[in-house]
Design goal:
About 11% of the residues have low confidence. Helices cover 34% and strands 18% of the residues. Helix 14 packs parallel to helix 17. By secondary structure, it is α/β, with parallel strands linked by helices. Strands 1, 2, 5, 6, 7, 8, 9, 10 and 11 form a nine-stranded mixed β-sheet that branches. A seven-stranded parallel β-sheet has the order 4-3-16-15-14-12-13, with helices on both faces. The protein has three domains: 36 residues, no CATH class; 212 residues, no CATH class; 183 residues, Flavodoxin domain (Rossmann fold, 3-Layer(aba) Sandwich). Bound molecules: 2-acetamido-2-deoxy-beta-D-glucopyranose (5 copies). One 2-acetamido-2-deoxy-beta-D-glucopyranose binds next to helix 7.
C-alpha cells in the first residue's frame, strides 16, 4: 500500500515536471517567435497592465466577439488625412529644378528586403522617406477588420512546414493551424496579424510598441523600368514584390519624361492576384493625396480599371507602364510575393466595402463555388458532384449556390455582390479567390490545395482579412482530384453551425 502511494506520488511529480518543462518550452518557442511582442499583444487583449510574461489564454482571445458591421473609424480617417498631408508637404519640399540627370554607371543596388534598408537609403539625399506608425496596442482602433481566426486543415503539419520557407503560414502570421474545425469558430484577437505586420517592411525593423504600418519614398528625378524598379542618380531601389532578383533597366535619355509619377508596378503585376493583393494596396495609404492631385501619373502593369476608376475614383487615363523618366517619383512600400501586408490590404478592403452593404453572417445566403478551366491542374475534375452536394446542403439551409465560372465571368458589379453575400467559398487553388476581397469577415474559405507548388497565399489573405480558412491537402492526390465526399466534411461542418457563427 505504502509503496504504491509512493509510486503514485513519484508519477505525479514526474507528470508535473514534464508539464512544467513543456510549458517552459512552449513559452520559449513562442518568445523566440514573437519576441517582445508577446507582452504587448497580451495587453492589447485584456487591456490590463499585466507584466508577467505569459501566453494569452483563451479567455483573453475571445474578447473580439464584437460584430464587424461598422467598418468606418474616425481614428483611421485621421491617420489617412495626416498621411496625405505629410506626403503633400514632402513633395512640395522637393526642389525638382535641381535634378541631376547624371546617372552613374553602376548605381548602388538597395533592396527593401534587406535588414539595413532604412539605414542604406538615408545616405541618398535625393530620397526622402515617410513612415506611417501606430501603437500596436491600439491597432484595433484603426484596423477596419476586427475579428481574426485560427486556420484549419486536414494536414496542418504540411501547411506549417511545406518544406519551403517561402509560404509557411505559421512563421508568416503566427496564426495557428488546427485540424479541429471547432477551433476556427471563435475569433482569436490580433494574434494572426503579428507576422503579417512585418510583410513589406525590411526584416526586423518593426519596433514595438510603435509599429510601422507603411512607408513611402519621395525621390527627386529618376527613371522606372517596366518592373517598377527605380533608379535615381547613384541608387537603384528594389521594393519588395515578385522578382527581387531583377536589377533595373539601363538608363536611356530617350525614355518619355513626365513630371510626377507614383510607382506600384512589379514583375507579374499583370496577373490578377499580384495586381490586386500586391500592387493596388500599395496605393491605399496615400489614396487621398492621389485623388487630390490628378496630374500625378500611376505606374502599374495591370488593366483592372474597374477598381481604379470605380473604387478609387481615379481616372484610368493616369495609368502608365513601361520605361519612364520622371522629375519626381513617389515610391510606396512594396508587398512581398504572395504575402499580403496588413495595413494596405485592409485599406483596399475598406475602400471596396464603402460601396458594399455590410451583411451579418446569418444573412449571407450564397455558397460560391469557383469553376476553373482545366489548366495547370488547378481545377476540380468532380465539379459537377461538388456542385450537386452544395445544392443539397444549400436547400437544407435555404441558401443559394452560385458558380463563379472563369469562362463566363459575371460583370464587375455582379462579382462584387456575389462574393459580398458569400457565406462560404469553395474553390481549387487559383486566382479567382482574389475576389474574396469583396467578401466580409468571418466568411469561410474551403480551398483545395495543390500538392505540386503548394501555395498558401489565400490562407495568408484569409488571415489578414479575417476569413475562416480550411485547406484540404493530400499528398497522394492533386488538387483537381478532390471528390465531393472529401470536401463534404468541411462544408457540412460549417453549414451545421451556421446559426452559431
Ligand atoms: C531650387 O533650386 C534652384 C537652384 O539651386 C534655386 O535657384 C531655387 O531657388 C530653388 N527653389 C526652391 C523653391 O527652393
Ligand atoms: C501530411 O503531409 C505530410 C507531408 O506531405 C505527410 O508526410 C503526412 O503523412 C500527411 N499527414 C496526413 C494525416 O495526411
Ligand atoms: C487557436 O489555436 C490554438 C492552437 O491550436 C489554440 O490553443 C487556441 O485555443 C485556438 N483558439 C480558439 C479560439 O479556438
Ligand atoms: C470622384 O472624383 C471627382 C473629382 O475627380 C469628384 O468630383 C467626385 O465627387 C468624386 N466622386 C466620389 C464618389 O467621391
Ligand atoms: C427561405 O427563404 C425565403 C426567401 O428568401 C423565405 O421566404 C422563406 O421563409 C425561407 N424559409 C425558411 C425555412 O427559412
Amino acid at each position: 500500500m505504502r509503496r504504491s502511494m509512493k509510486q503514485i506520488a513519484m508519477i505525479l511529480s514526474l507528470v508535473a515536471m514534464v508539464n512544467f518543462l513543456w510549458i517552459l518550452l512552449t513559452i520559449r518557442n513562442h518568445l523566440q517567435a514573437i519576441d517582445t511582442t508577446i507582452l504587448l499583444y497580451h495587453n492589447a487583449h485584456d487591456r490590463q497592465d499585466n507584466h508577467n510574461v505569459r501566453l494569452p489564454g483563451p479567455e483573453n482571445l475571445n474578447v473580439q466577439r464584437e460584430r464587424n458591421e461598422r467598418w468606418s473609424s474616425d481614428a483611421l480617417e485621421r491617420v489617412l488625412l495626416d498621411s496625405s498631408d505629410r506626403l503633400a508637404d514632402s513633395v512640395n519640399d522637393m526642389n525638382t529644378s535641381v535634378i541631376s540627370w547624371n546617372v552613374v554607371q553602376d548605381p548602388q543596388q538597395i533592396s527593401a528586403a534587406s535588414k539595413s534598408y532604412f539605414k542604406d537609403i538615408e545616405r541618398f539625399p535625393q530620397v526622402k522617406t515617410l513612415t506611417v506608425r501606430y501603437g500596436f496596442t491600439r491597432l484595433s482602433e484603426i484596423l477596419p477588420i476586427r475579428t481574426y481566426y485560427n486556420y484549419s486543415s486536414n494536414n496542418c503539419s504540411k501547411l506549417m512546414y511545406p518544406g519551403s520557407t517561402k509560404l509557411v503560414l505559421e512563421a508568416q502570421s503566427h496564426a495557428e493551424c488546427t485540424s479541429d474545425f471547432a477551433r476556427t469558430l471563435e475569433p482569436v484577437g490580433l494574434r494572426p496579424l503579428i507576422g503579417s505586420l512585418q510583410n513589406g517592411l525590411p526584416p526586423e525593423t518593426n519596433v514595438f510598441p510603435d509599429v510601422i504600418l507603411s512607408f513611402v519614398h519621395v525621390i527627386q528625378g529618376g527613371y522606372i523600368d517596366n518592373e517598377g524598379i527605380v533608379t535615381s542618380r547613384d541608387v537603384t531601389i528594389r521594393s519588395q514584390g515578385c522578382g527581387m532578383d531583377t536589377v533595373g533597366g539601363k538608363y536611356n535619355p530617350e525614355w518619355t519624361l513626365i513630371d510626377k509619377i507614383f510607382v506600384i508596378s512589379e514583375r507579374w503585376g499583370e496577373a490578377f492576384f499580384h495586381s490586386l493583393v500586391e500592387n493596388l494596396p500599395r496605393l491605399l495609404p496615400w489614396l487621398k493625396y492621389l485623388q487630390e492631385n490628378p496630374t500625378i501619373k500611376i505606374h502599374i502593369k495591370s488593366m483592372y480599371h474597374n477598381i481604379i476608376q470605380k473604387v478609387f475614383n481615379i481616372s484610368y487615363s493616369r495609368v502608365t507602364a513601361g520605361n519612364i523618366r520622371a522629375n519626381l517619383i513617389i515610391l510606396p512600400a512594396g508587398i512581398p510575393c504572395g504575402k499580403p501586408a496588413v495595413y494596405p490590404t485592409q485599406l483596399l478592403w475598406y475602400q471596396i466595402h464603402k460601396q458594399l452593404p455590410a451583411i451579418p453572417m446569418e444573412e449571407r445566403m450564397n455558397l460560391v463555388l469557383i469553376k476553373r478551366l482545366p489548366r495547370k491542374n488547378r481545377y476540380f475534375a468532380f465539379h459537377k458532384d461538388i456542385h450537386r452536394l452544395l445544392v443539397i446542403e444549400a436547400e437544407k439551409h435555404n441558401m443559394t449556390v452560385v458558380v463563379f465560372d472563369d469562362q463566363h465571368m459575371p460583370s464587375f458589379e455582379d462579382t462584387m455582390l456575389m462574393f459580398n453575400q458569400a457565406f462560404m467559398v469553395v474553390s481549387p487553388h487559383g486566382a479567382g479567390l482574389t475576389n474574396m476581397l469583396f467578401s466580409q469577415p468571418g466568411t469561410i474559405l474551403i480551398e483545395g490545395l495543390c500538392r505540386a507548388a503548394l501555395n498558401l497565399c489565400f490562407g495568408a489573405m484569409s488571415q489578414v482579412l479575417g476569413f475562416r480558412y480550411y485547406g484540404h491537402f493530400r499528398d497522394d492526390k492533386d488538387c483537381f482530384e478532390y471528390t465531393a465526399e472529401e470536401l463534404a466534411v468541411s462544408i457540412r461542418f460549417y453549414l451545421r453551425r451556421r446559426r452559431a457563427l
